[in-house]
Amino acid sequence: QFEWTELVLVHLLLWGNAYLSHLFGGAGQLVGLIPLHPSAVEVKPVKTAEEERRFGPFRKYFTITMNDGSQRDYTPLEITHITALTTDGLVGLSPIRVCRQAIGTGLAGEEAAARTFGSGMMPAGLVTTEEDIDVEEARIIAQGLDAKLAGPRNAGKWAFVNRALKFTPWVMPASDLQFIESRVHQVEEISRIFGVPPHLLGQTEKQTSWGTGVTEQNRGLHRYTLMAWSSRIEQRLTRLLPNKQSCEYDYAGLLQGSAQEELDMLIRQVDAGILTVDEARRVRNLAPLPAAETVEVESDA
Fold first, then answer.
1. Which of 108, 223, 238, 262 has a Cα-to-Cα distance from 248 of 20 to 30 A?
2. 123 Cα distance to chain centroid
3. How far is CA 119 from the centre of its chain?
């Protein structure tokens, strides 16, 4: 169950769409839902008279590319489609594609960091000499400098060159570019895109990320982020269930307090007659009391 939910959410978060193929039993009953990779599914609107004849009252159908390269068409009776935010009612928008500019900036920063550290923190620039040298000799000097100074293993080493060289950097130092701050901003950008509190991404420098601030942020994660995604799945799956049955995600584990708070709550619920002693023990993963020791809550009336 956990893996199924995780896979569906990954498809929604990365692709903006989750496609579930219906698995039917021998009597035609729905017995399961098999996730399909979004890259293998194409959603098409019903437009032509031939498509209306084939797909009846449905306004869209799904073309799925099989492992052997062949394609097959399916109706909404065979595929459950869960979308993220959509602008046309057919397919959801991928958060990755919508925010590709911000993510691209973060990737560019990662590449710049790798190159900066990989070259031993040596800035790029222009090297000139006070005397004329030919192209071959210049190439040899450049290769010698790279061999002695480039790379993290050579950081801090000295190089000797039998020429009078002048170095002119053509990029700003990393400190002037606020390099570290830009990399911290990458974490905040991902937090902003997906609605995840920064402290869950390892960003715990701000005071609001400690004490009660963490508790409130976790509650906000459930209310403003997780429910926005889980409600989509709940409502779609509820339509597949018989009447008076519904699908619902249980957030009790996410919202539970400390062990002492949970224990105090159980005691109050037992005292109020909401739970029996054995029901409260079951919540704490304890075995029921023997019959002779079971305490029944008596009403004051």
1. 262
2. 35
3. 32
Is 18:8 a contact under the CB 8 Å cutoff? Answer: yes
Strand partners, 73: 63
Measured between alpha carbons, how far is residue 147 from residues 55, 59, 115, 151, 161 in Å? Answer: 67, 65, 16, 8, 12
Structure tokens at 30: 């729905």
DSSP state of 128: E
16 or 156, which is more confident: 16
Going from the C-alpha of 149 to that of each of 140, 169, 290, 301, the distances in angstroms are 14, 15, 77, 88
Residue 207 is encoded by which pair of tokens?
């005071």
User: How far is residue 66 CA from its own chain's centroid?
Assistant: 27
Going through the chain in order, the beta strands assigned E by DSSP cover 17-24, 30-36, 41-45, 60-65, 71-74, 79-83, 125-129, 165-169
Return the ∠ at Cα 226 (arms to 223 and 229), rounded to 5°: 120
DSSP output for 210-236 = STHHHHHHHHHIIIIIIHHHHHHHHHH
Residue entry with tokens 């420098």: 205
Summarised one tens digit per residue, pLDDT across range 2-58 is: 899 999 999 999 999 999 999 999 898 899 999 999 999 999 999 888 888 888 888
Alpha-carbon separation of residue 292 from 37, 287, 289 (angstroms): 56, 14, 8
Structure tokens at 159: 């190089």
- pTM for the structure as a whole: 0.64
In single-letter form, the type of residue at position 180 comes to I
